[in-house]
Write a structure and sequence with these properties.
Elements: H1 4-20, E1 23-27, E2 35-36, E3 42-43, H2 45-57, E4 61-65, H3 68-77, E5 81-87, E6 97-112, H4 122-125, E7 130-133, H5 137-144, E8 150-153, H6 156-164, E9 171-174, H7 175-183, E10 188-203, H8 209-224, H9 227-234
Parallel strand pairs: 1-4, 1-5, 7-8
Antiparallel strand pairs: 2-3, 5-10, 6-9, 6-10
Signal peptide: 1-19
Protein name: Transporter substrate-binding domain-containing protein
InterPro entries: Solute-binding_3/MltF_N
């Protein structure tokens, strides 16, 4: 019994230390989900929701935009770190604690406008060189589906430049991002539906379960009250069904 007292005290101190630590969020530059405005402010569908969630929870946090491969690696390896908006895939499921959905993403394959690239099925699409960025869920998905010609870049902006320069034939892209780019005049066209995924906050396994529960409850309220759909509409994205 004498051992149990210091052990209990140690556990309480550990829990208390977690409670005092801020959550460190990482994300990528991927308008309209997350981006930095010229004045330095962070905006986007994901960022706006994370701000509301953390204000509701009352836990301090910091946020940094970085390349996606680094963002998700940091969240997986560093205590009290989270990344968004991450696709909740079977391969990633056990590696993180999840708060979902920030967005239900329909990913499509797109081509440079005017390109002769055409595919009605995934098998037909496999004849083309398809680009994506490292550590994105679409990299693993393309490989698992047997796409033989995959071109990898450091980030989504580089992949898009390659597409517009006809250095690759297609790239997978969120339907919401596609809508935004088309509205901005980017010369791209939809080829076909690629996949549908739930995107959310993926947290390091060290993040306390109690905090994850409170974050999920805050997101659930945000969805129930219609705030999430209002945010999506503000950024020109169709509401979640």
């Amino acid at each position: 019994m004498k051992i149990a007292v210091p052990l209990l005290a140690s556990l309480c101190l550990t829990a208390g230390a977690h409670a005092q630590q801020p959550i460190v969020f990482s994300t990528e530059s991927y308008p309209p989900f997350s981006y930095q405005e010229p004045g330095g402010s962070y905006r986007g569908v994901g960022i706006d929701q994370v701000e509301i969630i953390m204000r509701d929870v009352g836990t301090p946090y910091t946020l940094e935009i970085m390349p996606w491969a680094r963002a998700i690696a940091v969240a997986e390896t560093q205590p009290m770190h989270c990344v968004f908006a991450a696709a909740r895939t079977p391969e990633r499921e056990p590696r993180f604690k999840w708060v979902v959905p920030l967005f239900i993403d329909r990913s499509i394959l797109v081509r440079h406008a005017g390109s002769k690239v055409a595919a009605a099925t995934l098998d037909e699409a496999k004849q083309y060189t398809t680009g994506t960025h490292r550590a994105d869920y679409t990299e693993a998905l393309l490989k698992s589906l047997g796409f033989p010609k995959i071109d990898l870049s450091a980030d989504v902006d580089t992949t898009l430049r390659k597409l517009l320069q006809d250095r690759i034939d297609m790239m997978p892209m969120s339907e919401g991002v596609y809508q935004k780019l088309k509205a901005d005049g980017t010369p791209i066209e939809k080829v076909m539906l690629f996949s549908e995924q739930h995107l959310g906050i993926a947290c390091n396994l060290d993040v306390p379960d109690e905090l994850i529960v409170r974050m999920q409850a805050a997101l659930d309220r945000l969805i129930k009250d219609g705030v999430q759909n209002a945010i999506l509409k503000r950024y020109g994205i169709d509401e979640l069904q």
